[in-house]
Amino acid sequence: MRILVLGSGAREHAIILALLDEEAGHEIIAAPGNAGIAASATSSARGSVTTIALDPTDPVLVADYAFDNDIELVVIGPEAPLVAGVADALRPRGIAVFGPGRAAAALEGSKTFAKRIMEAAGVPTGRATLADTLAEVEATLDDFGAPYVVKADGLAAGKGVLVTDDRDAALAHATHYLQQGPVLVEEFLDGQEVSLFLLSDGTHVVPLSPAQDYKRLRDGDRGPNTGGMGAYSPLPWLAGRFGSEQAFVDEVIETIAMPTVKQLAEEQTPFIGLLYAGLILTSRGIRVIEFNARFGDPETQVVLPRLETPLSGLLFAAATGGLGQVPRPVFRPDAAVTVVLASEGYPEAPETGRVIEGVDAAASVPGVHLAHAATAIGAPARPGGMPPLVATGGRVLNVVAVGADFAEARRRAYEAIGHLRLEGGQYRTDIAARVAE
Predict the structure, then answer these.
(1) Mean pLDDT within 251-268
(2) Which helix (H) or strand (E) holds 396?
(3) Is there a contact between 24 and 1 (Cβ–Cβ < 8 Å)?
(4) What ranges in 74-121 are assigned the alpha helix state H?
(5) What are the C-alpha distances in Å from 250 to residues 84, 203, 240, 280, 310?
(6) Main-chain phi, psi angles of 189, to 5 degrees
(7) Are 326 and 165 a contacting pair, CB within 8 Å?
(8) Do the beta carbons of residue 395 and residue 351 sit within 8 Å?
(9) Which of 40, 84, 206, 307 has a Cα at 20 to 30 A from 153?
(10) Is the dihedral of CA 261, 264, 266, 270 positive or negative?
């Protein structure tokens, strides 16, 4: 197929690598892509990749390009194009698109909308109060007690959530985001977190394999919240509580995913795309922390390398209403680990423009590949010199390692990241440590 993938991060790179791993020989266009995605065009023996300077958040521009260039499937990677209504501009033109329309994407774009849908659908989640003023925030914090959970109502690139025992810090976080609109104060839920991706065609859902990510910047889950510093998949410890991974997934489908999809369909806002369920396993059962309307980052980087079923068929079936005839995807038993290399100053004020070295050595470690998140080709230091790879954002590269078990996958991942050199670069050293013991 001719497939247009919108986005420029490691999630989109992971999606493109999974599509290139198929034998079908797809023609993939990435808009706008990044340096790593562009390099995939020369490193793959299957299919082709082209990057184009197209604004992925402009619905008319994207729809015109897809129509004029005979695109058969559009895959929307990040949340911004979804909330901008890109899918709504594509579908009337007869173009298959994997990603919900603007109304259904509010499941991620508005925490308040998501809470209302969950309440209407009977989906288990924590108590929450929408606050418009600091006085309302204070009253709710005192009612719910510590630890305090304060969330920006709209999109905040993974940095709008604060969980803290410090009441003053919670109030400062709320004060900052109240300038942009209401904030959500939530009941703290304690337990292991799980990310589960579910493909939906508006009526049916098909699950992928669970993963766990690491949101805090530093080892031991310390430091500020980030967009994600690493992840691993599968989750072997699920079997101890649920009997098996499949039993856990079945419970999530029955009590969370299907009620949510049915509720959205009843409200004439069908959810077509990737329903990301951010879950927590409390002593009272599975609860939803949040929904996202697209593949999660960095969990995508560890889920898709284990996928045996061709990704393109799953995405196309979801986009065209065919998931009811699709069997559950098959996953390899391998363990996958990803470790994020971030810029100095991330997440508050990342330093950009610095040179990244050691990429070839890192990628040469057996079982390892790199998913680029924020990279570009810079200007050469001298005329005729090789142009360097430079960091353009906070999360720069994902080192993704696959192994027969987690010990092997971790060893490979950290051997590879040891080859990378980025001035001020930072990464966690404890990704998947607990499952590798």
Answers:
(1) 98
(2) strand 395-403
(3) yes
(4) 79-84, 86-90, 102-109, 111-121
(5) 32, 16, 16, 16, 22
(6) -115, 130
(7) no
(8) no
(9) 206
(10) negative
Burial class (CB within 10 angstroms; exposed 0-12, middle 13-18, buried 19+) of 328: exposed
> How far, in Å, CA of 306 to CA of 142, rounded?
45
Question: By the 8 A CB rule, do 31 and 56 touch?
Answer: yes
Burial class (CB in 10 A: 0-12, 13-18, 19+), 385: exposed
Instruction: Give the mean pLDDT of 252-261.
Output: 98
Q: Is the pLDDT of residue 379 over 90?
A: no
Question: What letter would DSSP give residue 416?
Answer: H
CA–CA separation, 38 vs 43, rounded Å? 10
- In the block, tokens 């959970």 appear at 149
Amino acid at 18: A
Distance, in Å, from the CA atom of 143 to the CA atom of 124, rounded to the nearest integer, reads 20
Structure tokens at 279: 């879950």
Give SS3 for 354. Answer: coil
Specify whether the CB–CB gap between 153 and 130 falls below 8 A: yes
Q: Is the model's pTM score more than 0.70?
A: yes
Question: Tens digit of pLDDT for each residue in 337-376?
Answer: 999 999 999 999 999 999 999 999 999 999 999 999 999 9
